[in-house]
Amino acid sequence: MHPLDWVQSELEADAELTSMLSTYQGYPAIVQEVVPDGMQMPYIIIRSEADVPSNDLINDMLVSIDVYVEEDRLLVRQIGDRIEKLLDMTIPFPHCISCVRAGRYPIEQPDPSVKMENLKFK
After folding, report:
1. How far apart are CA 78 and CA 69, in angstroms?
2. Helix-strand-coil percent breakdown of the chain, rounded to 5?
3. Within its chain, how far is the Cα of 68 from the centroid?
4. Backbone phi, then psi, for 29, in 5-degree steps?
5. Contact between 28 and 21 (Cβ < 8 Å)
6. CA 41 to chain centroid
7. pLDDT digits 0-9 by tens, 60-111
8. Which whole-number Å values give the CA distances from 2 to 28, 32, 47, in the listed order?
9. What is the rounded distance in angstroms from the CA atom of residue 105 to the CA atom of residue 90?
10. Which of 11, 12, 33, 102 is positioned for an S-S bond with 120, CB 3.0–4.6 A?
11. Residues 68, 44: Cα–Cα separation, whole Å
């Protein structure tokens, strides 16, 4: 399983997290790379920022998770907190040492009504 698919399946499996998100075509609003037309906030975008070899046997992948919410900075924080609880210090699948938080950043948007936060996991 690709790490982005694993992250998405972990997030989609959590009822507390998915209750904070909108739905799109019957599924929680969690996508990889590109937001489809018509998807409503709040939603999550998962993407890979880097996949770099750290030695002959191990790659370090930096996964970026963007949380978008309209008008509600508190909800952005709650979603981010839940993502951290689900992913930080986990061992996602065989041959993976662990998934650890690499940072969390508020990102200002051109539209002040859109609240966004970026979480990074290595």
Report:
1. 11
2. 25, 40, 40
3. 10
4. -80, 75
5. yes
6. 14
7. 778 899 999 999 999 999 999 999 888 876 666 555 556 677 778 778 888 8
8. 19, 12, 12
9. 21
10. 102
11. 6
46: which 2 tokens?
A: 């998962």
Q: Which amino acid is at 120?
A: K
Predicted structure pTM score: 0.85
Element (H, E) at 45: strand 43-53
Q: How far is CA 12 from CA 30, 86, 94, 115, in A?
A: 7, 11, 20, 21
For residue 116 the two structure tokens come to: 């966004």
What is each CA distance from 108 to 9, 68, 73, 114, 116, in whole angstroms?
Answer: 28, 11, 11, 8, 7
**Three-state secondary structure call for residue 59:** strand
Q: Counting Cβ atoms within 10 Å, is residue 48 exposed (0-12), middle (13-18) or buried (19+)?
A: middle
Q: Which of 75, 78, 80, 61 is nearest to 6 (CA)?
A: 61
Residues forming a β-bridge with 110: none
24-53 tens-digit pLDDT:
999 999 999 999 999 999 999 999 887 765
